[in-house]
Amino acid sequence: MTDRTALAPRVRVELLVDADDRRAALHDATFWGLRDTPKQVPAIWLYDERGSRLFDEITRLPEYYLTRREREILVARAPEIASVTQADTLVELGSGTSEKTRLLLDALAAEGALGRFAPLDVSEEVLVQSAYAIAEEYPSIAVHAVVGDFERHLPSIPDGGRRLVAFLGSTIGNLPTDARGRFLRGVADALDPGDTLLLGLDLVKDSARLEGAYNDSLGLTETFIRNALAVLDRELDADFSRARFEYVAAWDPANEWMDIGFRALGAQVLAVRGLEVDVVFADGEPLRVEVSSKFRRERIESELDAAGLSLERWWTDAGGDFALALAVPG
Q: What is the average pLDDT value for the chain, to the nearest integer?
């Protein structure tokens, strides 16, 4: 068991949002999302305790290649990333348990510059556990953990030193195009000369493979997405899981993203008592839970350029399924 008392001098936890803040922001986003076209609910509803456990199982499925391919690149390229960036601070956005980050930490430590790890995540419990675990595993570094939202709190990431900001797992693909542009501009504004951004990106590929990753043979992904409906019912005193919805995860070639959610089976009215609204669905009307954009090099290079960032390095796995992109300000 981690001795937090002994590690405390090297661990700082900065709280930018608390449970009440998160709840209010999430309820507000849900209220307006249910009025959007198409109707949608924030993907954060997916990640209660059961949802997080289901997602961990999904990453081990044969159809779900993303985690394996990104890890393959990190194993091969982490020493090069450390050599190129010479970072003494690793910032990780949406860090979770920071499992893959250890490959970068090891490489930066071996390069001899690493002095600080700064994870940012909205889940305080997971972040604090991870912060102390990293401090225990890497006794020569300080850990400055920030409980916050990477879409709102980029200006508050720890400054100073030469920073490598990592945003892995193709999480950026869950941001619609406009939100992605705002995020990248926020990163550009937060970076100083000498800092770098490392992005994990799932690449455009055969649509059958993409759809297979979200329609796995065991039905785990559908179970994971349906769990969000149960969470909505529990947290908002709603009727989503008692309504009739068909799971849909389909490739949208126009937007080059997977569109993941449900389709109403029949016209219906759902009570969402926690928001004091009734939501009307027409037969066949979609309810989006998340999108997962896939990328081409020229597309992300253009988006980086528009945000004030320049693509410096591009690494892919052997099969060309996934990429790591390294960008600098200016």
A: 93
